Amino acid sequence: MIVEAIRDRFIATRQRFLTICEPLEVEDYGLQAAEFASPPKWHLAHTTWFFETFLLKQFVPEYQSLEPLYEVLFNSYYNGIGAQYPRGQRGLLSRPLLSEVLAYREHVDRAMLLLLDRNALDADHEMILARTVLGIEHERQHQELFFTDLKYSLGANPLYPSYRFGTSSASEVPLALDWTAFEGGLIEIGYAGDDFCFDNELPRHRVYLESFDIANRLVTNADYQAFVDDGGYARPELWLADGWATVQREQWDSPLHWVEREGVALEFTLDGLKKRAATTPVCHVSGYEAEAYARWADARLPTEAEWEHMAMQTEAGESNSGAFPSELCHPQPAKGSDLGQIYGGCWQWTQTAYSPYPGFAASAGAIGEYNGKFMSNQWVLRGGSCVTPRSQARPTYRNFFYPQDRWQFSGIRLAR
Amino acid sequence: MIVEAIRDRFIATRQRFLTICEPLEVEDYGLQAAEFASPPKWHLAHTTWFFETFLLKQFVPEYQSLEPLYEVLFNSYYNGIGAQYPRGQRGLLSRPLLSEVLAYREHVDRAMLLLLDRNALDADHEMILARTVLGIEHERQHQELFFTDLKYSLGANPLYPSYRFGTSSASEVPLALDWTAFEGGLIEIGYAGDDFCFDNELPRHRVYLESFDIANRLVTNADYQAFVDDGGYARPELWLADGWATVQREQWDSPLHWVEREGVALEFTLDGLKKRAATTPVCHVSGYEAEAYARWADARLPTEAEWEHMAMQTEAGESNSGAFPSELCHPQPAKGSDLGQIYGGCWQWTQTAYSPYPGFAASAGAIGEYNGKFMSNQWVLRGGSCVTPRSQARPTYRNFFYPQDRWQFSGIRLAR
Amino acid sequence: MIVEAIRDRFIATRQRFLTICEPLEVEDYGLQAAEFASPPKWHLAHTTWFFETFLLKQFVPEYQSLEPLYEVLFNSYYNGIGAQYPRGQRGLLSRPLLSEVLAYREHVDRAMLLLLDRNALDADHEMILARTVLGIEHERQHQELFFTDLKYSLGANPLYPSYRFGTSSASEVPLALDWTAFEGGLIEIGYAGDDFCFDNELPRHRVYLESFDIANRLVTNADYQAFVDDGGYARPELWLADGWATVQREQWDSPLHWVEREGVALEFTLDGLKKRAATTPVCHVSGYEAEAYARWADARLPTEAEWEHMAMQTEAGESNSGAFPSELCHPQPAKGSDLGQIYGGCWQWTQTAYSPYPGFAASAGAIGEYNGKFMSNQWVLRGGSCVTPRSQARPTYRNFFYPQDRWQFSGIRLAR
Amino acid sequence: MIVEAIRDRFIATRQRFLTICEPLEVEDYGLQAAEFASPPKWHLAHTTWFFETFLLKQFVPEYQSLEPLYEVLFNSYYNGIGAQYPRGQRGLLSRPLLSEVLAYREHVDRAMLLLLDRNALDADHEMILARTVLGIEHERQHQELFFTDLKYSLGANPLYPSYRFGTSSASEVPLALDWTAFEGGLIEIGYAGDDFCFDNELPRHRVYLESFDIANRLVTNADYQAFVDDGGYARPELWLADGWATVQREQWDSPLHWVEREGVALEFTLDGLKKRAATTPVCHVSGYEAEAYARWADARLPTEAEWEHMAMQTEAGESNSGAFPSELCHPQPAKGSDLGQIYGGCWQWTQTAYSPYPGFAASAGAIGEYNGKFMSNQWVLRGGSCVTPRSQARPTYRNFFYPQDRWQFSGIRLAR
Question: Chain D: nearest CA to A354, how far in angstroms?
């Protein structure tokens, strides 16, 4: 990519974070209802820290930091950079104030734009551009986390505050589940384009697949309700042993954000409590719940290779269909009986444990901690959700969470 | 007391909370760094809830609540009223906003003033006045907790923010510890005046005391440093068994809010990090630390009866001396070699477990939960600290905390 | 006491431990179902360690230890002696074998008898005798713990094994609760005889008591059942706050060792599961349960001074009555309507927190850790239970446990 | 297999458990030093329970159980059978006594032999034989767990008791690490023979492999010491994030069972504490440690497909070489520079998360819980250790443990 394009993308991405924060009140910026759910203010600062740490401090000798402690306060997990303020205590940072964090953003943005302008002929030019693109993609990931973390934290408030949008009037006509068949054989997976991808999407490599069928749409609230009604959360034979232990320990009996009030089935959304629509995809289920549902339904979760193979065949149509519900922070019902809902609804749990592709090598230095060190105990999710930046919805993108996690917009697509 | 006096006291007390909040930023109002350290906004709302719950909802049939859920959100521990929002999650209530909590205060204040005005001839008149006075004293207690909780929560931020005041320029001339002797015999303790007291200060009753000596001043930072330097935190023989277990588990090696930075002895105050003054009282020690220090110093902590007996003899002089450092949120050095520092410096740990006086009876109903149900496992502290409302500094006032607690302004006075 | 008497008492006490162990199987000797419930084999070894550590190693230069590591393995909590094997892991010591522990006992016994014989004229003579007496009393305490710990550990086995005795055929004729009045005034408590007492029973000192009534018998299973049936475990207003938190956390709904099976009220005893008798004292209740029961019954627990004063007036009759059910490891019903059941049934919770008497001083050195360091957070129990050695049942004996503890034979006597 | 062969195998396997128990003392049979380390007595009973539950109770209508509660006490994790006595409390079952458990074994053995004899023409004949074989293999797995659990539990005793064997005089001549290259391509993995295999070894299926190299021997104590000396346990960049968190939480600084005493490098073995031999394989490392070591050594762990492919090429030589150190419960040094140590030394961690092969289906009913429900969060280990029954050492056998587990005889073979 040329500098101008990166510069524009940088400005637009940085600006978008301010835009999606607009509906917040000052009090909301510090909210952290769980160790994993960072406050909005921290996301604003950490994404800034990323540019400061991996670009300005490395390539701009005269760069002046506003406050040396920010290096510690806004370091997420990079041991190569140094100490980190405890993750679970990010909500305790009433200072720096929101206004100070915004000033920090401006300070870094100014320095970044100078850096992008002046380095065209430098030896480090390529590295600077690559790092900037990584910082942009990193910020996009945090913009998605902004939504999921915020939803989790607001959901801990019995007043169920609304963040912003309507959730749209979902069609209530149910659509039968159907299967699409794919031939097995020796295929290839992994990124092969010439735009950006994360290191964990590489290298492209061969995989042997058996033939498989995949569902044309995501599992809906109504589908999942049938599982609940059939005693799904009380029958250990449907669950992995670790999943069952989690159900018992956490006393789960429905997806996160499902609410029952005086006999009415509700759902907490980023627009507050709403009636739970039968035809929208079930969302905020853990990998364990997805896996148990699949077993109950005499099916299974796809592998990540199957999912990617499926997406490569069908992506074009999907992305032309304008499936992204841009401003709606809630998954929408399937639009037709063709294979769909690939992106823009819910992330889709696969049965594949997150591990390195054959030949994977992490980058040198602290930046190498980005993805590689998380390659154990997590499961791969594929696709993208209603709060995923559109640019990150691609067939090869590997999202990953622990099988017990359910605060993401995560849903279920069946295979067999 | 007559209605007018109560009315004035009500208005002044309610106003004072707003005054002491003035130095805060909006972001600070939601801060909660531990389950025991409630956010400023919650204190503002809970003290309001107290008047709403125990007065307006009981004596004003037409009273309209602003939001029914406040009954749950701002109930501290009154099972007789109903469910309580979990104590440790008060910092998660970004809503109601600060402005909404302030509106809640105004709403309740208006209704309270109407209630105080119109009920002069009612059957409930006496009860209403008594409850109002209790509500005022309750709010004063929370104004003290505002300071201690805020100090704890700001202290969790590596930026060590300042709340407001200077901490005064403490004299550095050390004052030798001296002892005052008191005769034993059959004495009386418990409240005997005709103003307000809490139920736990009653009934006044006889206690037999052996003769005892009591220290004329509080233990200073310099005194306590000698204990630390002598291996105080590494010698189990100086500690109660439960205290030693706490030291090990919490890895204590100095009082809370002591900070060492590049070899300099500092102390976190409500005006940020300051040099630790040798002559100011040691503060923020647990009962276990106080008890271990006393053993190390070949002394002991006073009993609560000894302390009260001492204070009754010396109070007049003390309270005439203007010992209250009004606007300084930090204990001050002793002013002379006479028995002093009784109020206005640090709460003083006694060796007495908090239990009911002979013949104690809690009030009927939920209000009876105010004090009585806490009469186990805690220790009595006497006196009052630099952030205690002056009206609550009296010889008979019984403060109580767990022996492991140290986020209050708690210090040490020796006896033998 | 003269040497011969101590020698005899030593031999008899050491022998008694072997006698009470006789019903055990080898497999039972290592049983530890909770951190607080030490295995029989460990008690056998630890009581031996006490003589070895505080007598042989100090007064017999040529004494040879069988195994140096025993110093660590069988040290209970004496930091002054050195490191301790973790308390909760005592059940993991399959080695030393039972036969090796018995050999250890014999080895130490031989050396102790030699020591007692030869030192008649030594400078250390008095100290050696005093320590030996303390060691004997210490072993007697552990013989009581042997029963309580064993009952707890066997009770964790769904087979509910029997240890030995019948539990006697309890009379089923209920006896009405009655009150005995005692005059208040300035009294004295604390040990005043010339036989042995523990340091915590000293010094004898004056206490002022208000007049009080005390119940003539212990609370029975039938009494307590009425409390349970009245929702006692579901009504927070009956409980201390810490007690209520314990009820919730531990999900208590009846005393320890109560068992319900197919609608039949049973009780685990040292003779296995038995029908729960209405007239036997309720046993294995915590201090919290005792206190809540008393509140429900419009009464209260006695203070330890009240209890001791009561016992001093009535002891003679009691101990002449042969109240000790010698070989029955289960409390027996009250025998008549006079004030009774003072010893030999259940320990009786008082409302008094365990703390030092005025002027208390612990012994110097590690032996000083015996009692003093536990004087916080525990409650005093008075009397003695059906498994208490008769020699330790005296009016001034201060037993102490945490208010949440209930594996002792602890019951309830009311006062008002 | 014909009935006679199964009958013989049944008798031999049942007998072998008694043989390997012979060196134990009665006290050792109840030992459980961690939730995962079941006592010998429990293993003896549970393997018996397996035959009783899945054969006698299903196929022998007149079968009489000795004690109905055994169904609960000795059920490991089969929810389909019913409730289970808590896993972590197995050490609390002093009853049934060892003699009773041995009688239980005889009772079941008699019934099993009758069942095997009489059913030759029954409809259930095939099912009974298959279940019997499964029960035999199950017992063999528990015979291995007997060793690993016992080693863990004895290792918690500071006396470091010996179980039985010498550990052999290990050669101290180090052998250079060398690599063997394997061609990639489309290969097959999974069991293909006609003897027994577990369900998780099926179905045999195709996998595409890149070319790879594999180490000719296991990593030795000397190799691993170099990693420790190079700060391996203090450098987060060498670890997976979850591994690093485990190192910090557990304060690991060396493999389990390594002991340092007065500067001498020792190792706890089933023959007590021994000098740590440089040339024996490092053992009792977790998956995280294996993975970190590999990264430090510029290598990686093999995938399970790579390992199986390697073993299929080399097995013949290996198993002809008599590599099994039959009676030595300790891994032995490599014998030569050829690719070796495939079985009989240490289980070898792979980088592969344990998951179902494509097309895997668990058996119907409770027996289906055997393997399938554990297919998450664990890692596959391949090979077999010095305590693995020889019959279970085969190329397709999939062992699995959590990456933090290290009480098995687990070691490291590198790949690249």
Answer: 9
